[in-house]
Amino acid sequence: MKSLAVALLFATLVASAADIAGPWKLTYTTENGLVREATLDLKLEADHLSGTLASDRGKAQIETGKLSGDEVSFSLLRLGNGDEIKVNFWGKVEGGTMKLKMQYGQRQPIDVAARRIP
């Protein structure tokens, strides 16, 4: 019975990890009140997350990314006025949605809503 419970737990973790790969639409409101959208295309190998984020500001590669259960985190570099600025994301996967926080450089984190693109 114990081995069945462990097998079911493992299958659940594998299934939830596999569910994050693919395209996602991100929506957030900047500190200036502007509503922005971006497309996140994720790839997952074991717990290592990679992919790209594309918006009207261009495309950026995920530098570091990790998925642990339903907790997701990743970072990327954006060019801003000739400088590279690190952008950090972290949050939870909830089925076909993610509730994330995004921190652009040293600014205050803002809420980001993500939904899977079918």
Written description of the protein model:
By secondary structure, the protein is mostly beta strands. The protein has a single domain, classed as Quinohemoprotein amine dehydrogenase alpha subunit, domain 2 (Lipocalin, Beta Barrel), CATH 2.40.128. The chain is built from one helix and eight strands, in the order H-E-E-E-E-E-E-E-E. It has one helix at residues 2-18; strands spanning 22-29, 35-45, 48-55, 58-68, 71-80, 83-94, 97-104, 110-116. It has an eight-stranded antiparallel β-barrel with strand order 1-2-3-4-5-6-7-8. Strand 2 (35-45) and strand 3 (48-55) form a beta hairpin.
Keywords:
eight-stranded antiparallel β-barrel, 8 strands, 118 residues, globular, single chain
Secondary structure layout:
Elements (H helix, E strand, L loop, with lengths): L1 H17 L3 E8 L5 E11 L2 E8 L2 E11 L2 E10 L2 E12 L2 E8 L5 E7 L2
Antiparallel strand pairs: 1-2, 1-8, 2-3, 3-4, 4-5, 5-6, 6-7, 7-8
Please give the largest β-sheet: 8 strands, antiparallel, barrel
Structural class: mainly beta
Number of distinct helices: 1
Q: What is the oligomeric state here?
A: single chain
Could you name the CATH topology? Answer: Lipocalin
Give the overall shape, derived from the CA principal axes: globular
Alpha-carbon Rg, integer: 16 Å
Q: Could you say what the CATH architecture is?
A: Beta Barrel
Return the CATH class. Answer: Mainly Beta
Query: Unreliable stretches, pLDDT < 50, 5 or more residues?
Result: 4-16
Taking strands numbered 1, 2, ... along the chain, how are they ordered across the largest sheet?
Answer: 1-2-3-4-5-6-7-8
Portion in helices: 10-25%
Q: CATH superfamily membership, which one?
A: Quinohemoprotein amine dehydrogenase alpha subunit, domain 2
Order of helices and strands: HEEEEEEEE
| DSSP strand count | 8
Mean pLDDT over the full residue set: 87
Number of domains: 1
Strand content: over 45%
**Euclidean distance between termini CA atoms:** 37 Å
